[in-house]
Amino acid sequence: MPAPRTVLLTGAAGGIGTLMRDLLPDHGHALRLLDVRPIEEEPDAITADLADRDALRGAVRGVDAIIHLAGIPLEAPFGKILGVNIEGTYNLYEAAREEGVRRIVFASSNHAVGCTPRPGDDDPLIPVDTPHRPDTFYGLSKCFGEDLAQLYWDKHGLETVSVRIGSCLPEPTDVRMLSIWLSPGDCARLFHAALTAEHVGHTVVYGSSANTRLWWDLSTARALGYEPRDDSEPYAGKLIAEQGELDSGNPAHARLGGEFVTDPPIWPY
Ligand code: 15L
User: Does the global pTM surpass 0.90?
Assistant: First the structure.
């Protein structure tokens, strides 16, 4: 086990943030928490908006790395995405640069490439260098984040692992997720690898478990030392019995992003 590293976790009150608060300490990381919402059970958590540059500088000061999960996680009007996901991520990178933080693990998303046709059974897995094809303004903000990460590596030597997260839930809840499920345990293993691998520069990886029905090439994630342990297949029988197999004639099933391509879920706030 490597020595504990102090890691700032942004978005600590969100779905993945809540799971990681439980799981990452077991990998030896000491977490500093930040969210725009107070976290009742975590009185030491920093409550701050990504627009508050002074608060961000204070929050990143002295940490070894940042896991940046904060942001709008679904589709929203462009103005909201611009403020929170685009300007907010820029503000965080600036704070990190100013305070000399060496590495960020950026929560990108499969929706950065969501308009890519989903591979058929005999097709090759989708590589990380497939062109950006966002399916929403949300996905577009993740493309921006990946490019921002590349800029800060090339210009400032600030390293990033951009993780195109699939569906990180305790268990898959629809048939598409059988291909892109990232179990919480594997998510923690992947973040740990992204925090501790040497010389990552800017590396893009897909965030998925070792699913039998996997669509994505996990080789860049494995090169960091990620060894997924979970597979969605035990859930397949029940989900397919309830929902049927994916149907290529259905536009919501034809591309990686699923319903984000056709009828995206809207952030309600
Ligand atoms: C995402 O990026 C979303 O934040 C999450 O809510 C899920 O919808 C996930 O993608 C997915 O594609 O299932």
Answer: yes
